[in-house]
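Appendix B. One record, verbatim.
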Amino acid sequence: MSAGAAIQIDGERVRELIEREEARLNENTQASDRMYERARDSLAGGVASSYQLRDPWPIYIDRGEGPRVWDVDNNEMWDFHNGFGSMVQGHAHPAIGRAISERYSRGTHFAAPTEDGIVVAEELVRRWGIPKWRYTNSGSEATMDAIRIARAHTGREDVLKIFGSYHGHHDTVMVSIGVEYDAIGEGDDLASIAYGAGIPKATVEQVHAVHFNDAPAMERKLEKLKSEGRLPACVIMEPAMMNLGVVLPEPGYLEAVREITARLGVVLIFDEVKTGICIAPGGATEKFGVTPDLVTLAKALGGGLPIGAIGGSEAVMACVEDGSVYQVGTYNGNPLGMAAARANLLEVMTPAAYEHLDHLNDRILEGCTGVIEEFNLPGYAVGIGSKGCVTFSTEKVVDYAVFKANQDKILCDLAWLYNMNRGIYMTPGREEEWTLSVTHTDEAIDSYVSCFREMAADLVA
């Protein structure tokens, strides 16, 4: 097709394709169906996390190696899901495997510090330029503890977050996520709404939200809260939003946020659970050249093991060092996790690895953009480092409101089905993005683009 204005997608055609592709996927995942029936007897909903749910049944994975995974039906797939972005190293990486094996024979848990924990911290200092670190067991724990540290440092309780951003599953950050468009609010008066049941109303009322990529709105909100005697302890934000597909910061935005928060004495927390390790050696902090007061890591840090970390300035982390904040956890700095993280940082995620990821990213973006232009699809491809997605929107997504108003959910659902039925394992839903790994090849990228092209051709047939 010739280049021009984006075509109007035929909704009936999309529904027909979804029905066809759902039937195909269900037919090819009968072992998952049987496993789901078994799992429901003992696991709530048949899964370990609500994000693993899928109707009519989840896809149960059996094994992974390098850039591939196999489900319990033995369907082989290129893995672009990568554990919600955790496995940028690829599956069963031999360097990480050796480190885990050697550590296992020497004991896996002592609730005491080990040398590997020091080595990992020294490497994080080098990469982020942030001097003090502590460990957790997940991204949720990392953001929870970072907010507590910010509250202790400032003596204040309220929190400002970016509307629509996800920062884990503890109460304070389970606010203003997944809100329907007509409930977002207008101007600077954005709604604070609990994300699911069980979140105390008092907690929700301590959390305020502003849109991403709007530094003047953040400044106005902070000044207003200050005038009311409710200046927040912190602003917690992803420096690049990673749960609306991928939304990059506009030029100057992060610099303005840094200036505003520093001037008002508000702790700036960069949640790098998704960007850390994945988009540059020092994550988004390095990539965009803006240093927060606190940074949180997890996912890709552990090379497949559940660890997280918090980095902070000398001033902000002083309340941890003097013992006024109890940043604790029996498994914090677990020897097995630290051994894996050490191998991950020093042997796997090397300068050559990031060069390879940049090459793959350029290739997949070029391929997907070519398909969009060939078929005049309503959307665009966006990516950075190992992260990227096709955003089905005729308007550039810069914040949650634009995302909800424009992103075509049904096309995202169809794309997921096409991927799964053609050997591409992907994260479900319009909020998620692909994650490349250092073990991915040009063949894997070409398979992804070929699948996308097949869907595009079927849409306009």
